[in-house]
């Protein structure tokens, strides 16, 4: 798993001790380090106590060369023996002594394939390097934010003003839709309650021989214009698929659309049901 990954990248030995840099990072990055070493592939204790030696070796070369990998493998085991002896001499807790012995025992499984262990160590070093790089980049960004010059501040203020104006126009546009529906509702009321009622009366009279005109042309024109206007509003509001992809917190369209859509549907329903004079008579 590891060997293929390393063939395409060259690991650069760090200047200042990389492990020391990691230990000085903020808690959010230390948490990433903890998660990195959460498994059993390469113990954090070994990384910590042999940090200087580990960072001084060419693990990339070892991951591709059996002889070099075997030499580093043997030296690693020797260093673990030395660390164990140091723990004993310094009277360190038995748990530390036991863990070092256990780690050495676990590493024995790479006796036949030491380059695999070299690849694993290289992988961890690169992951550490990524964490350090992320932390340094975040620090640089924060420093740039603190050092903003007056021109940048003025530019930001101008952009904020434009954004505020843009939000107001969006809100005004939605308010305009509401006003448009008010007008449409008023027109529909006149058409249904007055014009259509008058036409129905003329139609009834014509059925018994009165010379009243029952031409529907003008009425159809008015109803058609009303319907076209409502369908245009409906198209504007039918943005559910797009809205689901680009909506954001406090989106005015998302919050106001249901009420506007309900009004449009109600008006269209009323219009379509009302203008069927030929079937009603």
UniProtKB/TrEMBL annotation:
Domain STAT transcription factor protein interaction: 17-138
Keywords, comma-separated and alphabetical: SH2 domain
Signal peptide stretch: none
UniProt-listed InterPro entries: STAT (IPR001217), STAT_N_sf (IPR036535), STAT_TF_CC (IPR015988), STAT_TF_prot_interaction (IPR013799)
GO biological process, alphabetically ordered: signal transduction
Molecular function GO labels: DNA-binding transcription factor activity
Domain of life: Eukaryota
A Pfam entry, by short name: STAT_int
PANTHER family according to UniProt: SIGNAL TRANSDUCER AND ACTIVATOR OF TRANSCRIPTION
Annotated protein name in UniProt: Signal transducer and activator of transcription 1 isoform X2
Taxonomic source organism: Salmo salar (Atlantic salmon)
Name of the coding gene: LOC106583229
């Amino acid at each position: 798993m590891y060997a293929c990954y390393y063939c395409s990248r060259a690991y650069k030995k760090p200047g200042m001790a990389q492990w020391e840099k990691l230990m000085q990072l903020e808690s959010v990055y230390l948490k990433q380090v903890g998660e990195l070493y959460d498994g059993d592939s390469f113990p954090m204790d070994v990384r910590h106590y042999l940090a200087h030696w580990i960072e001084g070796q060419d693990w990339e070369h070892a991951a591709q060369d059996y002889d070099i990998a075997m030499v580093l493998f043997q030296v690693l085991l020797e260093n673990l023996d030395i660390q164990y002896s140091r723990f004993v001499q310094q009277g360190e807790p038995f748990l530390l002594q036991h863990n070092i012995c256990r780690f050495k025992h676990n590493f024995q499984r790479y006796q036949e394939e030491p380059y695999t262990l070299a690849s694993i160590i290289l992988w961890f070093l690169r992951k550490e390097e990524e964490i350090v790089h992320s932390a340094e980049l975040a620090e640089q960004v924060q420093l740039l934010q603190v050092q903003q010059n007056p021109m940048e501040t003025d530019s930001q203020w101008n952009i904020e003003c434009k954004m505020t104006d843009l939000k107001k126009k969006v809100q005004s546009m939605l308010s305009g839709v509401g006003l448009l529906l008010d007008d449409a509702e008023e027109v529909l009321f006149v058409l249904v309650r007055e014009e259509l009622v008058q036409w129905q009366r003329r139609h009834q009279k014509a059925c018994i021989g009165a010379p009243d005109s029952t031409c529907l042309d003008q009425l159809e024109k008015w109803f058609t214009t009303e319907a076209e206007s409502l369908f245009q509003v409906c198209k504007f509001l039918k943005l559910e698929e797009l809205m689901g992809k680009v909506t954001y917190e406090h989106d005015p369209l998302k919050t106001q659309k249901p009420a506007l859509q309900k009004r449009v549907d109600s008006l269209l329903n009323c219009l379509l049901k009302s203008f069927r004079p030929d079937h009603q008579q």
